[in-house]
Amino acid sequence: MKLYNQIVLASALALACVMTIASGQAHEITFGNLVIHHPWSRQSPMAADVAVGFMTITNNSKEDDRLVKVTSEISTTVQIHDMKMVGDVMKMEELPDGVIIPAGATVKLKPRALHIMFMGLKRQVVEGEEFSGSLTFEKAGTVTVDYEVAAPGGDMSDME
Amino acid sequence: MKHVRMIAAAAVSVALALGAVAWIGADLLRDKTSSSVFDIGGPFVLASARGGTVDSKTLAGQSYAVFFGFTHCPEVCPTTLYEMSNNLVSLGDAAEDFRVFFITVDPARDTLAVMKDYVSNFDPRIEALVPTDDQLKQLASEFRVYYARVPTSDGGYTMDHTATTFLFDRNGSFTGTLSYDEAAETKQAKLRKLLGR
Fold first, then answer.
1. Are A152 and B78 inside 8 Å of each other by CB?
2. Is the dihedral of CA A92, A97, A101, A103 positive or negative?
3. Which of A43, A123, B9, B76 has its CA 20 to 30 A from that of B84?
């Protein structure tokens, strides 16, 4: 019976992984009261030292939470940045205190706005592959996510 | 009385005519001065990642575009260069001798070797140029380009910069810009117009 349970559990986990990573399909991770929709990145140009990450985070709890730390297997440093266009000038700002995910709200990290910056790339991020990383929330704790990599200049924000 | 009215009417007409002349004159003058407002760019001789230098004087007869950016740029720069690459391909023969210069605003990190590898991701008509700090200052003033280092918590920095692509015709005259936020079709239409096809 114990073995049977283990097999069921293992199969369920394997299926969950397959469903999560199935290429070209939106994936989401439910983590306590948080739902993380479709983390994705973009192929980084060869010789580039940076890559970007995007996702949508929904907080279903009654308390605000905050994304405070991000790590990844592909880079030595990860920061949370906000980008905006002020007239014709692209302005970039690091958010050292992270991003508040208000109670009952959804926060979207997307091109031309809030994004994750992978810096000090250990290798090129290539279209079609996946890489993993962690997100640490002040209250909910740490969760592992997989990023799907879009084409150069591609946009998967519709899938978030 | 009738006579007085006629004189008054004539005076008004003359005043209107004078006003019109002054108006048109002012307009013409304004046009003259506004062309200097749009006098963007200037001659440059810059080190190229292909080796040697690019001298803008040798570009006569070729239209070209200039974009300022840096390789540690997460979005605007690669997106602009990928879009430009796609446009160059779809413009086909019309863009055969069109030149695109990607000038770094971060020469401290973007050496010629780094820039060479970086632009190899894009259409071969895109050429990377690396100015010295002094050259960059002068270019920024001539192209009215803003750039500034923004420190990050890891002791490094990122750059704020103007994300406009500047277009020059076969005579080397500035003709307009591609703005980062414009629709892809608008950008392509502007390039078509520049290339005269």
1. yes
2. negative
3. A123
